[in-house]
Amino acid sequence: MVSIQLVDERNECFLRNATRVAFRHLSRTAHIPTVPKGFGTVFQVRKHSFFGETMSIIQGFPDITTLTDFSHTLHLDKQTLFLMSKYPAFYYVSFSIPKKDGVLRHIDAPKYPLRCTQQWILKEILEKIQPHETAMAFRKGNQFGIAENGKKHLNQPYILKIDVKDFFSSIRRKRIFPIFLGLGYSPFIANLLTNYCTYNNSLPQGASTSPALSNLVLFEHDRDVHDYCQAKQVIYTRYADDMIFSADDKQVLLKKIYPLVQESLKRLNLRINGKKTQLLSANNRQLVTGILVNNEKITLKKQTRKRIRAMIHTDIIKKGKSRLSEQTQGHLAYVNGIDPVLYNKYLAYYHTLKEKRPSRQEKTPTAKQENLSTTQEKELKPEKEKKSNWFMRIIKKDW
């Protein structure tokens, strides 16, 4: 174990001044954190083998050695960079949303300055590191994604689905620091980058950097499990916290693969969610990340197909809209990436409904309506259509 004490006088001088700024900034709030009188930074550095020869790294990382370099690169002042690193609680908005089973999902959404910093780290650093080939989520490329993940398990006799419990919150800070240190950054910069990407000593669910970092943390796990599965003639892919295994022999999946995965995840302080672990046979409906893989091609389950069809009917007939809502167009863009044939059927159904829709005749305004105030007239006017998002641009030519 080697301890390195920062001895750069300029950095120490800045950190002391930034601490005084933090006191003035935080003195207006109800909860004032305790900051020690003498501000010093000690980093514990140890040897690690995170990046092996099998890790594919694209060269061209930003050259950052001091906080001044970071400030010039991000166009943020040093005080803001320091406060985001030292007091992240003031740069997050926490809330909860319900899951399908009713359990609340905790979200930590970064505020604007921290969000921009995380997006820069994702684009300039993390996206230049290639995760293992079995990681199908949170990465670019036609060979990845939810559709390609389902295609790898088509027409398999047995499928084992393993879910990781509390995925992001279980990935601790100590797993993130070696990643940036292994890229060649100094302990000071690596610690700074780690602080921007973690919250409450773990990966925050809501930060743009968390998905990419989770893929890198599980690189060795994916590599070891993949090599073992190849020897046992088992197909393995991982989509975020969902690990999918398919094979001809279910005994291999239950007695060989499951214990191996359980032990491998234990080393990373991760646990299997037993409630979501399933063994699916070809006689039953095989769903992989919401996609049916029983047939010759991947498709959506019946309930999802009916729900999307009902959304189109509601927009055109019940609500009388001239075009589909953004939510419906987002679902259709998702369908187009999984089953283009089903997408064309929805397109034909959409045009059929538009032809059957009765034309609405404009009503002549009454005397009472003519005497309405300006405020009431604004309420009668239809709302302006929102600007199209990226979902709408995907299928703009069709819809």
Task: Give a description of the structure.
It is a single chain. With 399 residues, this protein is of the alpha+beta class. The protein is 44% helix and 14% strand. The protein has helices at residues 9-26, 67-74, 78-86, 112-124, 146-151, 167-170, 177-182, 187-197, 210-217, 219-231, 250-267, 302-318, 326-338, 340-356, 367-370, 374-380, 390-394; strands at residues 2-5, 42-45, 56-57, 92-98, 104-110, 129-130, 158-165, 235-239, 242-247, 271-272, 278-281, 287-288, 291-292, 299-300. Strand 4 (92-98) and strand 5 (104-110) form a beta hairpin.
Summed up:
By secondary structure, the chain is α+β, with helices and mostly antiparallel strands. It is 44% helix and 14% strand. The chain is globular.
Keywords:
399 residues; five-stranded antiparallel sheet; three-stranded antiparallel sheet; 44% helix; 14% strand; globular; disordered C terminus
Strand content: 5-15%
Share of helical residues: 40-55%
Alpha-carbon Rg, integer: 26 Å
> Tally of extended strands?
14
**If helices are DSSP runs of H or I spanning 4 or more residues, what is the number of helices?**
17
Instruction: Flag low-confidence runs.
Output: 1-16, 18-54, 372-398
* Spatial separation of the terminal alpha carbons: 62 Å
**Major β-sheet annotation:** 5 strands, antiparallel
Mean pLDDT: 79
Give the structural class. alpha+beta
User: What characteristic shape results from the CA principal axes?
Assistant: globular
